[in-house]
Amino acid sequence: MKKIVEVLPDVEALIERARVVTLEKINTAIAERGVCTIALSGGGTPKPLYEAIAQQKLPWDKIHIFWGDERYVPADDPESNQLMARTAWLDRVDIPASNIHPMPTDKADPAVAASKHERELQEFFQVAPGEFPLFDIILLGIGDDGHTASLFPHTEALKVSDRLVTVGNKDGQPRITFTYPLINQARYVMFVVAGASKKPALAEIFAPNGDASTYPSRLIQPQGELWWLLDRAAGEDLRSE
Ligand code: 6PG
């Protein structure tokens, strides 16, 4: 694993740097393999990044969009990560509908939806059950509690290491999430983190030793490149490397 940590002066500089790095990795993936697979994070931080990427001229037919996690709500719910990305980015570019692979949230049982998406990933990447596909890019954020994707502290999702997709749990609310082993297969994992509220969790995540069940972002140790892009408010106590 190659780890890059960059602390940018403010959110605007963070988003611009994240845009540049994301575009670089998209173009590298397409140059090397003719296609780019990217899994998006949700929440609020990445929205301006998605708006910036939507301004770019890219071979959209060569880019496949996935999500690293999803709230278990309808696709038109204001809480939906899919809706946020479509509004900020995907509805603004000429990307084929078949290149967009949202997590299903229309099953009564989230576990059924998670299994369905697992099969969809296996089919897309042509991997057998038990094999983990390699995404090119997985974008992630962290919560104030140190969660990432929908891998929340002290939840069952942190123990799942033999699946691609599982059910997360935020305060009793179901989520669908990539598992940490799937995330760790990626060629480029990029955390984009802003705001002073993330400082305490970052200190624990970057500590030499610590408890991954309390700070699940510690589980993210990808075989490829691990990028931490932070604004100063979040990362001022960390050193760039
Ligand atoms: C989600 C995200 C989640 C997010 C963090 C940070 O579904 O909410 O995928 O993991 O990245 O909660 O969210 P903010 O960027 O809004 O602080």
From TrEMBL:
Keyword Hydrolase: yes
GO biological process: carbohydrate metabolic process; pentose-phosphate shunt
Entry protein name: 6-phosphogluconolactonase
EC number: 3.1.1.31
Database matches in PANTHER family: 6-PHOSPHOGLUCONOLACTONASE
Protein function: Hydrolysis of 6-phosphogluconolactone to 6-phosphogluconate.
Domain of life of the native organism: Bacteria
One Pfam family matching this protein: Glucosamine_iso
Lineage: Bacteria, Bacillati, Cyanobacteriota, Cyanophyceae, Chroococcidiopsidales
Homology family: Belongs to the glucosamine/galactosamine-6-phosphate isomerase family. 6-phosphogluconolactonase subfamily.
Gene3D superfamilies found in the cross-reference section: 3.40.50.1360
Catalytic activity: 6-phospho-D-glucono-1,5-lactone + H2O = 6-phospho-D-gluconate + H(+)
Cited NCBIfam families: pgl
Domain Glucosamine/galactosamine-6-phosphate isomerase span(s) in chain numbering: 10-228
Sorted UniProt keywords: Hydrolase
GO MF: 6-phosphogluconolactonase activity
Gene assigned in the entry: pgl
Pathway the protein contributes to: Carbohydrate degradation; pentose phosphate pathway; D-ribulose 5-phosphate from D-glucose 6-phosphate (oxidative stage): step 2/3
